[in-house]
Amino acid sequence: MRMAAKLAHRRWMRGIAFAVPAVLLAAGCSTPTGSPAPADTQVPVAVGLRRNQTGLAEAVANAANPTGGQFLSQLSAQEIASTYGTDPNNAQQALKTLQGAGFTGSLDPTGSIITGLMSVQNAEEFFGVDLRVNAEDDVQVIRPSDPPSVPSSLAPYASEVAGFARSIPSTTSPSPSAPTTPNLPPCPPPVALTNRLRNYYGLEDIYARGNTGQGLTLAMLEIDQLSQPAISLFEKCFKVAIPPVTNTIVADANPQAFGDEAEESTLDIVAAGLLAPNLDGIQTYQFDPYTSMVFALDDAVSASFQPNGPEILSTSIGICEKNLQDPEISIMEWILNAGAASGLTTVASSGDDGSSACYPQTKDQASQYPGTSAVVTALGGTEFVSTGGTRPNEVVWNNSPSQEQAGGGSQVSRMPKPTYQGSIPGPNNRIIPDIALVAEPADFGPIPVCKNNGQSQLQVAGGTSATAPGYAAALATMLQQLRKDKGAQLRLGSMNPMLYNVAASPNSSSVLNDITQGTNDLYSAGCCTAAPGYDSASGWGSVNFGGLLNAYEANITKSG
User: Fold this and answer.
1) Cα–Cα distance, 64 to 498 (Å, whole number)
2) For the chain, which ranges sit under pLDDT 50?
3) 201/473 Cα distance (integer angstroms)
C-alpha cells in the first residue's frame, strides 16, 4: 500500500510508502527560513546522558550469541542502569537542571535518557536553538534552523540532545478522529491467505501444539489513525479474530498530524492478527510523523520493562539514514540495545523503494533506519509465483515497471558491520535485509480502509509493512511454545546472531527458505539481485518457523 501523494514529503516513511525526505538541518550561516515558532507551543526534547553504550552493546551481543555461555540471558532495567548507565546522582542533577529551565518529563527506566516537553520559548533560551515554522505537506511544522547542541549547564552530565520538531494544530481545520460509524462495503471474496502463510512458513506444528499467541503482547509504532471499525470489518469479512488493541499518543502529538485515514495501522494490526489471533494484546504507539522516532521508541521499550509488557516490537516506519543526525541515532541505539538486553525483540520493515531507500531525494543505494541497527531484524519482501504445483515459488518482490515498488535492501549503510555479518562479502557496514517475508499486495488481498467522513473502502494492500508485523506475530507463537518448554520468562532478544548462525549450519535448509530469483533494484542503483546464500535482495530468505523453533530448543539445551 502506497501512501497518498500528500504524504510524499513527510520525514518518515512507512514500509509500504514513498521515501519521505526530511528537512535537512544544515549547519552554517544560511539565513533561517520560515516564521518564528509560537512561544508557548510545547516541543518534545530528548537528552542522552553520559553512559557506557559500548559496554551495553557488547552485553547484548553476548546474550544473542547462540554459541556462548550467556545465550538468552536478560538484564533488568536496574541492572542496565547500574552497570552501563549514568551515575544516578548525575542523572538527577541533569533532570533538575532541565526542570529549572521549564522542562516537564522524566528519566527512562535505565536512568540514562530523559524525554519530555518544553515550551518553544524555554527551549530557545536554554538550548540556544532557533525554532522556525515552515509548511510541509500543507502542515505547519516546527523545526530547529540548525542542529541543537548540549548547553554548558548540561555538558557534565549529557552527551546528546535531539527532538524539538513537531507539527502544530491548524487554526482552521478540525482535528481528525478515527471513524466510528463507517459506511461498510460488502465483504470481498475470501482470500485463503491465513492458511497459505501458515503452511508455507512452517507454522502448522506450532499451531497444532496450541500456540496462537496466548500470554504475549506485541508493540507497534504508528503514524496514522487507528480505526476499530476497520478492524471489526476485517474480522467479519475474513472470519478471523484480531487481538485487542490499546493505543498511546506519544509526546503530546497533534491529532491532525495523523491524517484522516487508517490504512497503515489497519494493515499492521491485521497482518499480526492473521498469524497470532490470540495474542493478549497489541500496544500501538502513535507519534507525530514530523518528529523524531526517539519518543515512540522510548515509550514502547519502557513499557517492555514493565510486568506483562510487550515481548516483541514491530515497526513498519523508518527513515532514510541520511536524514538522521548522529545524536538522534545514538539515543535510539541506546534505547534499542536496552530493550534487547532485557530480552525485547525488535523487527523492522526495510521499506518499499528497493535498494534506494532515500527515494525520491536520491536514487542512489541507501538503507532505512531502524532496520540498520545491529540489534534489529530487518525484513525484506517476497512474492509467491505459481509453479503449477502444490507449492508456489517465492521470489523477490518487485512490481516494476508498472509500479515502483520493491522490498528494501542495500549494501550501503551508516551503521558499522556487526560481527554476525563478518563472513558476508561487501563493504564494512551493516547490510540489510536479514530475512524476508511475503509482501506482494495481491497475495494479501483487500483490507478495510476507513475515513473520517464515515466512508469505507476495501483496498488491496501489502508491502514490507506487512512483513514486520507478520514476522513478529509468527515469532510470538514460537516464543509461546519455547516458554512452555524452557521457562515462562524466556525472551528472545536480538535474533540476528541466531539467524546467521543457523544460516551457516548444515541443516540451514530446514530453517531458511533460500530465495534465488529476482532483484529489488528499481532505479538502476546497481543492487541487489537474489542468489544462493545471503543477498541484499532477500537476506537469507524467508523463515520456516517450525525449523527455527527446533533450532532454538537445541541451542537453549546446549547452552545449559
Assistant:
1) 7
2) 1-14, 16-30, 181
3) 12
Q: Is residue 63 part of a domain?
A: yes
Strand partners, 36: 132
Q: How far apart are CA 41 and CA 54, in angstroms?
A: 36
| Angle in degrees, 0-180, between the axes of helices 464-486 and 263-275, rounded to the nearest 10 | 30
Inter-CA distances, 371 with 247, 261, 376, 528, Å: 23, 26, 6, 17
What pLDDT is attached to residue 199? 85
The whole-number pLDDT of residue 188 equals 64
Amino acid, single-letter form, for residue 283: Q
- pLDDT reported for residue 179: 52
Q: Are residues 133 and 206 in the same domain?
A: no
CA terminus-to-terminus distance, the chain: 45
β pairing state of 217-222 and 312-315? parallel
Place of cell 494484546: 281
Cis amide bond preceding 179, omega within 30:
no
Within-domain flag for 20: no
Q: CA nearest 227: which of 268, 193, 188?
A: 268
Per-residue confidence (pLDDT) for residue 531, from 0 to 100: 96
Helix (H, G, I), strand (E, B) or coil at 510: helix
Residue 160 corresponds to which cell in the numbers above? 546528546
For cell 531507500, the residue is: 357
- What is the CB-side half-sphere exposure of residue 22 using CA atoms within 13 A? 24
Residue 464: which of 408, 504, 512 has the closest Cα?
408
Residue type, 526: G
Choose one of 131, 149, 167: the last residue of a domain.
Answer: 167
Q: Whole-angstrom Cα distance, residue 145 to residue 139? A: 17
**Domain's final residue, options 152, 167, 182:** 167
Quick one: which of 427, 464, 432 has its CA closest to 534? 432
Nine-digit cell string for 535: 543477498
Its domain, for residue 500, covers 193-559
